[in-house]
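Suppose a colleague, Dr. K., hands you the sequence of a protein chain of 283 amino acids and asks what its three-dimensional shape might be. Before reaching for any lab equipment, you can write down a predicted structure in token form. Begin with the sequence itself:
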Amino acid sequence: MKILFLLKEHPRNLNLLDEFKKKNGNLNVDLVLMKGEDLLPSPPDNISINLKRLWKIHFTKRYEFESKYFDINKKVLKSMANNFLEALDYKDKNFLNFLGRNKYDICFISGIEIIPESLLKILPEYTINFHLGFIPYYKGSITTFWPFYFLEPHMLGTTYHIIDKKVDNGEILHTSFPSLSKGDSLHESSCKAIIKGHLEINNIYMHCKKRILNNIQVDKDYSLANKGKNFKKVDWKPEMLTFIYDTHQDDIVKNFYDKKKMLKMKYFIINETLEKEKKTFDE
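The predicted structure, expressed as tokens, is then:
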């Protein structure tokens, strides 16, 4: 199997390859890192003083928790790759030449922008996205934020799915949910969800390898396009931080936990759909 990892350069994405190599250290993989946005962005000038305060709290917490959970950097990651490239975007000539020179059986992606259809034609059929959200309920952007904003922390999850021309609508391979504790904040919960999902990447690889060797085609289930919501970046507003930090003091997990709800979830586990009851939060 020839494998490509196509990742945005933030540590939360780099960790995916790190986990893969822990169990597949003898496999050669190629790595392309895409330029990422600032993890500590400055607030817009046209928002209130209070929103600027909450903005700083929100992104500082994200930076601190991700630094705690994802202790990996580009230099270390580069040493894990057989071939390595850094690219600004999909139009980068070096990136296009890189793909042109190499043919892959499997490609894992995480954190990158929506892949244009022209690029999908170059990438392998088994191009698998690690999506930070529970598909089909939370598709699109900023999908670890929305379960908290809608007071549904039990819906915080991650999804491995095969990339399709429609956003977050390709075949679902596996959905994962973290175990959360009362004191978990929005960003710590998000980190736990990512870690839990990353730990399962070897199962996804072995499953896809078996399917490729047995010529099993990707399931084109276009009904997913009509399920859930596809969130866009413009849906997120700084004013929403008031609800998280002023109204709920970033204690949404605790507040939900105290209701002692028994949760019903659908699990998509390696191409099989199971329904089971699961108490998500640790006693």
